[in-house]
Design goal:
The chain is mainly beta and 197 residues long. It has one helix and 20 strands.
Amino acid sequence: MYKRYGVVGSIKLIFSLLFTKIFYPKARLIRLPFDVRNNYLINIGKNLTTGFGCRFEAHPIHDPKRKCLHIGNDVQINDHVHIAAGECVDIGNDVLIASRVFISDLNHGTYSGPNQDSPLSTPNSRERPTKPVIISDNVWIGEGVCILSGVTIGKGSIIGALSVVTKNIPDYCIAVGSPARVIKAYNFEKEQWEATS
């Protein structure tokens, strides 16, 4: 451990391991600092690993006692990931999330359809509409990705670095860009990724 992390890094790791075993015994390792808001409204599966500076928030909008953030088994989350749930953010099993990723199922205000918010109102005074976010099993989310409300990411899919996901991504696809679009899909017969038209 010393050769890999150095003296200071090893001490930090020991404190993080103690914190994990005391407060999150099902997790593998939660590195400190770690910020959780409304922990009792969050389900965390087995063997969660986090990087430094992660922030998990559960602020149920419709039912104040309903758990709204669900993290599956064997999930790995890297440094400075921010997840905010107001209705339902559901992360499946074996999901890998790179650093500086933002995932949220809510927004401050309504900007389309009926009853739109005025730019003259303060953002904090506007209603917070929610739409569930579902991240299926075996998904890999790259560095700096932003996943917005109402999105489902299908099984085994990959979201490229710095993408902004505003629409559903099917199973077994690679999506990149802002807004993210599918550029490849996996062909199980040929056992290879193929470009989409």
